[in-house]
Amino acid sequence: ASPAFIGGQTEADRRLDRLDVTGYAARRNEVWPPERRGASALSPYVRHGLLTLPRMWDAVGDGPRRDADKYRDELLWQEYARHLYARLGPATRHALRHDILPTAHDIDGDPWPPSMACMSSNLDELHGDGWLVNQARMWLASQWSVRSGAPWQDGENEFFTHLLDGSRAANRLGWQW
Fold this sequence. Notes:
About 55% of the residues lie in helices and about 0% in strands. By secondary structure, the chain is mainly α. The chain is globular. The two termini are about 30 Å apart.
């Protein structure tokens, strides 16, 4: 169980009803401190079929134009990832364009070294809450595959294991991006 999320349709509806995208474009990638975050944190409800992308699209229609447009861009990314996965399926486990060869950086043998406070903090949230803001996901992915040189597929699998919004479609596409 995640202390950050309550399951069920009633909770999903309540969170969507409270969604205010004002400031979303500027704050969506804020990681620290958590109270500055602008992410909606609705993705677990989408992943489990409690909220649909068209419903979320409509929910932000009255928001500030720049913020609603940016939010809708993220919904379009999810839709694109779904279509790509529907077409390619398990083939997305392999590089879509260019093979990324692992390198030998090996930082203390752990792609996410706990000695790095930013890694430790994000991993605590990943393992405890089952969710991370996009910027934290990108930091972890970069640390795993670029700095540590570990295979991106292993990092994507680690994410999928812990994320409440774990999606092979979006996660695999994001890790290759």
